[in-house]
Structure formats: structure tokens, C-alpha cells
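Possible race condition, two jobs.
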Amino acid sequence: MDKRPCMIAHRGFSSRYPQNTALAFSMAAKNGSGGAETDIRITSDGAFVCSHDDDAVFRDGSRLLVADATLSELRAKPLKNPKTDDDVFLCTLEEYLTVMKENGMICFIELKGEFPDEKVREMFGICAQIYDLSKVIMQSCCFLKQLKAHEMFPELPLMLTYGTNERHYERCFDCGFSIDCDQFVITPEMIREFHSRGLEVALWTVNTEEDMRRCLALGVDYIESDVYGADALTL
């Protein structure tokens, strides 16, 4: 099918810049990515920050659990950054959304850690206020969490994160959920099933030229990568 997908920078341009930072998101835009994936956690004082891991590691070697620290504590020191000489700080949801909006990029957002319903409502309310919910895609392997978010925000695009074939992805069809699938699990039949229902397919995480060529040929809608941006589309 050779469809040209939207390239999504996995945690920003994370192969060259510290992941899930404003710098990584900004450089993803310069690298030609059409979107950027991030992970959101909640601090002890209720702020939303971009962090895949449950702790933040700082340049001085110290670390703090995100859920046990306040936003001011987490942003008081630069993060560990083995990739560049820049001082980088923990990125807030608002900073991430601002970079995405300035560059017209798609937001892939995965919720990490404890996320009560009221915080889901608050977080996507912020997304709607700063950017546009049609540009924000919530990803989760928890189907119940997806259903609750759908009830709160019917216009919010949703993707089931799918890493094995043990669960039944067909339940997405009744709810209108797209799929965010491990590149080695997806099949052409699955892609046709989703596309025939007007649903989208994203693949993760594609970092080698061989894998990228194979995934480009599948005709999916999004490809997540630590390495490639617009340059993938010329392979």
C-alpha cells in the first residue's frame, strides 16, 4: 500500500536529546516529525509532568519519585542529560502542549501511575484549553481507563496500546478505538480490519532502517520512532 504515515517522535527526539523534555519535543519538530509521544504523571501537588519512569533523575545524581514530590521540587534542579550540554528541566504538560501547538503537531499521550477520574478530566480539560482535543490522542493498555475517558470527552481520539495477541483487540471496534500496536505483532489483516471501520493504526517503536521500510510498506497511519522524523519518508 505504501501509504505515507505521520511520524511520531517517541518521547520526543529521544535518540539525540533527553527524553520527554521540552528540548526533545522542539527538536522533534525541527527533525520533521508530525507529532510527539509523551508519558504523563501526577506530582504530589497535582501538577502534570512528562516522565516515563516513576522517578526523576537529576544531574547531581539525586532522584525523586514524581508522585511523592511537588512540582517546584522536581523543577528545582536540571535533569541528568548524557546527550547534550544543555540544562534541561522536567517538562510540564503545559510546556509540552505549547510546543505541539506552535508546530501543529499531533500529541500522543499515555497516562502513567495513579490517575483518578477527576485528574483525567482535569488533564484533558487543559489539553482542550491550550490546544485542540482533535490533535490529542490518548493511548493506554487499560481498556477501562479508555472507556472512562471516552465518557468524559467523546471527541477525544483513543488508541488501545497493544503489545501482545493475548487480549482481544476486536473490542476496539464497538467503541471506535484505534490501535497503537507493537510493530512485530501487527498483521496486514489487523490493519485492514481497523481501516475498514475508519479507525487508525499506529506502530511502535521503529528505529532501524530495515524495520522502517517494512512498516512504511504496511500503509499505517502513524509510526513512532526514537530516531526517524521526516527522513523516514524518503527511505
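Job #2 (started ~2 s after job #1):
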Amino acid sequence: MVGGAFNAIVNSLVKDIINPAIGLFFNTDLSNLNWQVIEAVVDAEGNVVTAGVAIGFGSFASAIINFLITAFSLFVVIKVANKAASLRKKEEEAPAAPAEPTEKECPYCLSKIAIKATRCPHCTSVLEE
């Protein structure tokens, strides 16, 4: 539903704003530009002998502009979504702060002892704070 509404907005932007602005250079609306391949030929009695054939490159250019705006908008939305997902993933993977140490090493016998110990249980040395 949002895509349909967005498409209507882009169509209006191209039709009502961009086409007339580009048409300023051609003195007509961009979607009305065409190339007459065969002119309509009328005989002496007023009957159309051959119908005119025109290639409407203006409406094709409007469709290209419409596509480019839609594609760019979709590109931006996907880039933002990917960036948000990568930021969320980085937050989840971030290591927690290292825990406070619970042991220390006896400077005399090099045994592991409790961090709050004042005497080594292995060599019975008195530890200085």
C-alpha cells in the first residue's frame, strides 16, 4: 500500500513538476514531445489517405525519469535499513567490559591467591597491600 502511494507521488512529481520544467527548453510539456515519422496525408476530397505515425520519446523520457526517482528512493531505503541492521549487529557483538580480577599472584611463591588475601596460603608469607 505504501509502495502504491509512493508511486502516485512520484508520478505526480514527474508529470506536474519535472515535465513542465524540462519542457521549458522545448516550449511544450515533455510528455507531448514526439517525432513525426509519417505525416497524415489528406486527399482532395478530405479523406485521410495515410495516418500520421509519431514516436513519443517525451512520454518515454518521463517514464525513465519516473523509474530513476523510484529506483533511487528504493536504493536509499535499502541502504538505511542495512546500516541500521549492521549497527544493531555491532551492538549485540560488542564484548562486555572485562570483569574485575578475583585473584592475584603471590610475589614470593607465584601462586594464585584471593585478591583480598593478606597472607599467602601456600608459603604463608605476609602480603603488603
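The chain has two helices and six strands.
Logs attached separately.
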